[in-house]
Design goal:
Length: 325
């Protein structure tokens, strides 16, 4: 039987009284992978932080909804801190993590400090575990790397160290926020391969954020498309990318540059509104080629359009009917 590691239901995220993410529904099973994709500012990183219990350092909070991690109900008052889930149940490789390592600290210190913190009170062979972790993330000559400073490593190597730090507590769910964005293409491929291997070896679920649909297509089984703080489409990656139903997903795919593509790239007209100016109805309405009056009046709910697929568009049934004609 599959075991659900993450269950998020109707989560909203608020910072300084402003709701920046609304009604996020997500589910990830043990060992499975989920991609989150969407334009800049769509709420991907805030969602990652919320799922990892890391909103409070940036002054944010889950203001509504329910979040379960394994058997822990994280949204019950004070639960995340009390249960000490970070690192052990869920872990995050944050966006821009390549600059996250302290330049004055050797890699060995980063790792042993994290290992000691995760094993609070217990005596551990921190150095041996650090070497083991560096080997697990495919870094050659781990003894040498332990004595090096972050600037002595390449971007790809630093990202491997960040992943080693994130898996040090053997989490059941690893969230990687744009882990390949700043890396060149061949290193990107290696990092994705590493994440896939680790997820398989450790039976660890993976949430991978990227604005690159190619990355999502290679590395995830399911995907959630976010626009302006809401999920607009969600389902198996293959189905969502082959048969996108939401006009925003369709536009994202049309705007994607690929080698050998001869047709013109069609950008998405306009820009997303800022959270203070989000409209009452569908937040994509002002950029949508299929907009009609009801789109501006009411937020469309996520509705089932296929076996495991949901789409938030008032007109999705009409699109489906047209396709079947
Ligand atoms: N600490 C913060 N304080 C106030 N607003 C924030 C904060 N962090 C994010 N936001 C706002 O929340 C919204 C979502 O931001 P988020 O960083 O989650 O987007 P994103 O989808 O990860 O974008 P990107 O692709 O650029 O990483 C944006 O409008 C952003 O300006
Ligand atoms: Mg982000």
């Amino acid at each position: 039987m599959t075991e659900t590691i993450l269950h998020a239901s109707k989560i909203a995220i608020e910072i300084a009284g402003l709701e920046l993410v609304s009604d996020v529904d997500l589910e990830v099973d043990k060992g499975h992978s989920l991609g989150i994709v969407g334009e800049t500012g769509s709420g991907k990183s805030l969602t990652c932080r919320a799922l990892a219990g890391l909103l409070s350092p940036i002054g944010g909070r889950i203001s509504r909804g329910n979040l379960r991690l394994g058997r822990h109900d994280v949204t019950s008052p004070g639960a995340h801190g009390k249960e000490n889930l970070y690192g052990r149940v869920v872990s995050l490789v944050p966006q821009n993590s390549l600059t996250a390592l302290n330049p004055l600290m050797r890699i060995g210190t980063h790792l042993t400090e994290t290992i000691k913190a995760l094993n609070s009170g217990r005596i551990v062979q921190a150095k041996a575990r650090a070497i083991d972790l560096l080997e697990r993330v495919g870094l050659p000559n781990p003894e040498r790397i332990l004595s090096q400073y972050p600037h002595e490593l390449s971007g790809g190597m630093r990202q491997r160290v960040m992943i080693a730090l994130a898996i040090a507590g053997r989490p059941q769910l690893l969230i990687a926020d744009e882990p390949t964005t700043a890396l060149d293409v061949s290193v990107q491929k290696d990092i994705l391969e590493l994440l896939r291997r680790l997820s398989h070896e450790e039976n660890m679920a993976l949430i991978l954020v990227s604005h690159d649909l190619g990355v999502i297509a290679t590395a995830t089984q399911a995907v959630a498309v976010m626009y302006a703080g809401r999920i607009v489409e969600r389902g198996p990656t293959d189905t969502v990318l082959r048969q996108p139903r939401h006009p925003y997903t369709q536009a994202l795919l049309r705007a994607r540059p690929t080698i050998g593509r001869t047709g013109r790239l069609i950008g998405i007209l306009g820009a997303p509104a800022s959270p203070e100016a989000w409209p009452i109805g569908c937040r994509f309405a002002s950029r949508c080629p299929h907009v009609e009056s009801r789109c501006k009046a009411k937020v469309p709910a996520l509705e089932k359009t296929g076996a495991e697929k949901v789409v938030a568009c008032h007109r999705v049934k009409e699109h489906l009917a047209l396709e079947l004609e």
